[in-house]
Amino acid sequence: MILAIICIVIICLALAFFERFLANLKGRIPGLVLPYFFGFTSIFSILTAVWQVLLDLTKYGTPMQIILMFAVMLVALNVPTLITYAVYVLCRRKKGETPWPLRAKPESAPAPEDKHPD
Questions:
Q1: Contacts of 45 (CB under 8 A, 6+ apart)
Q2: In whole angstroms, what is the distance from residue 16 CA to residue 22 CA?
Q3: Of 52, 53, 54, 55, which is most buried by a Cβ count within 10 Å?
Q4: b/e string for 13-52 if b means 16 or more Cβ within 10 A?
């Protein structure tokens, strides 16, 4: 049991360092590979579970238990997504950039004034 926990911690640290490396590359896209991968994997897993539950509703308990099961899955499967995205945001902010969802909307430029020579 202890060995499994140690392996999970080592894998998480390795992913965090790999995400840090990707986030510090020149473009924005490499740093978003891992968060998107984990996000799509969690969505695919939840959709697969929904399909299995819909095939036989009587086997999985009451509707409230089913909803709670999917809520727990949604949170648990998106932990790696949130961690890798947080590493991406921190690395980009350290470089002086503000990542896309947190970026302030550009203010509209003031209308140019007509300058008439007197």
A1: 73, 77
A2: 10
A3: 53
A4: eebbeebbebbeeeeeeebbebbeebbeebeeeeeebeee
Among the ranges given (4-8, 9-13, 51-55, 103-107), the one the predictor scored with the smallest mean pLDDT: 103-107
* CA pair distance 21, 16, nearest whole angstrom: 9
Cβ atoms of residues 17 and 88 within 8 Å: no
Q: Would you state the pLDDT for residue 25?
A: 87
The answer on pLDDT for 3 being more than 90 is: yes
Whole-model pTM? Answer: 0.72
